[in-house]
């Protein structure tokens, strides 16, 4: 069965990746349209060997379309998702708008695929935050085996998570460091990002957390298990694509590092690169363009009774956004639309 697909926000980083991944995974498509704001009408987007010219989202009629993949901000999504669902088109949303809505499933297909059945209530499914998506892929199989009590995670998040303007700022600041008189002041970020790290992603909350850190807590609980305690420190680093995470896990039961490594090796969406030698681990530059969540540096934590440490790396534009959305669409096709 083939489907009529709309990609909303097709000219952005994530929207373009959605088009690439739909083609790469040979998603069954009868008709596909690229949508964007009025200022981007006519912009060309690649879909395999074909070129799609973007159409005006504001005037687009979703009637007859099966699935719309949204890669626009929360405010725009609030307006246009309703237009899509009113025409019986299912929406898979990459913004934060619907992630915490009790009637809308928040899905990472390797972790909670059965939650797709909840989509019939609202015709909307939400994509999690990029940092959460790769984390729960790593945690799920370990939680099934030994039950996770607490997670301490520090993230090292690339600038592509903030959009094209942030990538341009990193590039311009980096060049400006070597050319006198061409220094670039921060605009996207509160401080210089080139040759620097910024322990601040999203807005600060009253308790001292940033919103990004709060998202990881709330989303892990919703996707995986509400009983898990999690604390996060989220840091922006001068990397173009690819998020990294240092993860400390405390379990209810003892889990040997060798067993953990074997479990993760057989788990969906995960690749193990874990040799105790120079270069025997993955870095963000190596994961860019890949589907997998890569796990390295698996080792026992001797400071607690049942603890493990690991290093987790993934392409945030793919698994953290576009790939996960397409995987949700695949679930939707297999479990909901095929039965309709």
Could you give the topology of this structure?
Elements: E1 3-8, H1 13-24, E2 29-36, E3 44-47, E4 50-53, E5 55-56, E6 67-70, H2 74-86, E7 90-93, E8 124-126, H3 130-146, E9 148-157, H4 164-176, H5 211-223, E10 229-236, E11 243-251, H6 257-265, E12 270-272, H7 284-287, E13 293-300, E14 307-314, H8 318-335
Parallel strand pairs: 1-2, 1-6, 2-5, 6-7, 7-8, 9-10, 12-13
Antiparallel strand pairs: 3-4, 9-11, 11-14, 13-14
Helix pairs in contact: 1-8, 3-5, 3-8
Labels describing this entry:
single chain; 340 residues; alpha/beta; six-stranded parallel β-sheet; six-stranded mixed β-sheet
Detailed description of the structure:
It is a single chain. This protein is α/β, with parallel strands linked by helices. Helix content is 29%, strand content 24%. A six-stranded parallel β-sheet has the order 5-2-1-6-7-8, with helices on both faces. A six-stranded mixed β-sheet has the order 10-9-11-14-13-12. A two-stranded antiparallel sheet has the order 3-4. The longest helix has 18 residues, at 318-335. It starts with a strand and ends in a 5-residue tail after the last helix.
